[in-house]
Amino acid sequence: MNGNHTFKLSETGFQRFRELVNRAGGVAITHAGKDLLRKGLAARAGALGVTTLEDYYRLLTTDINREEEVRRLLRQLSVPDTRFFRNQSQFDVLHKYIIPELARRKLEERRVLRFWCAGCSTGEEPYSVAMTLLDSLPDRDNWKVEVLATDLNEQALDQARRGWYQKSRMAGVGQPQRERYFHRSDGGFQVNDEVRRLVTFTRHNLVNDPLPIEVYGICDVVFCRNVIIYFTHSTAGFVIEHFFDIINPGGYLFLGHSETLWKLSARYALVEIGGTFIYSKPLPTSLSGRRFIPDRRMRDSGLPPGVDDDRRVSGSDRRATEQSAI
Description:
- The chain is of the alpha/beta class.
- The chain has helices at 11-25, 34-48, 53-62, 66-77, 88-105, 124-136, 154-162, 175-181, 193-196, 213-216, 233-246, 296-299, 315-324; strands at residues 112-118, 144-151, 164-165, 182-185, 188-191, 199-203, 219-223, 247-254, 269-273, 276-281, 290-292.
């Protein structure tokens, strides 16, 4: 196998590969990530016995098995970074506000709750969602609860399906949840069957694959955290708009703390619940602890259904408006 140092990535080659992985998986690679891209390309080219990146590009674009190799390359370039109950405040809001609200809203309907974890990596996030659902529904047996977990990386999905984690990966799991939802196995911790039955893992490309509505149905909550930051602006907007189509009215979209829909979509409402910011389609009026967040993106759009008071204006802007009206 060739060492990484034997592969040179020219500027022309960088642009070609960057466009290829963007088309295939929506991955946006800047010049700052050029060396990481080169190392990923070199690893795959070396594994195939290809001697130059030019030859590897030719293989990716002309070989009969090119689609499978593109998937392998995308897996090579993906860097899973996930933990149980990552961003704990979001799971607190899910437990205290959102799941109880969804349950109350559906008491007289079909008692079905569907969640989608897009970009689930090795499974910690969807299992955290499933545990939160079990903790939040007192009459669990009267509900059909489903968590769809998708990712591009098939190796990560295989690990997720196994549901076994080393002790070092359990830092975010409290002792009561460890005792209820895990058992010790092979020196680590195995997710128990009660949790695993709620989660379905499957490969899905957010950019190129159709929405899983036909096989899964409309969702109440979508988690897509720390994913769109790796997309180009146009690709991120495309994915976010598609999420809107699969979320029930009154449902929610969770993004990572560093992610925003600013200039990506004006169809969602940015709301604050329990001190945590999330997005809603459209904003219901029944959850307590909610307020509009001043957001220039929202000011030119109409108010969501059922909201009469425009709280999208910040305090200082509101005072100025009130004074001018006197």
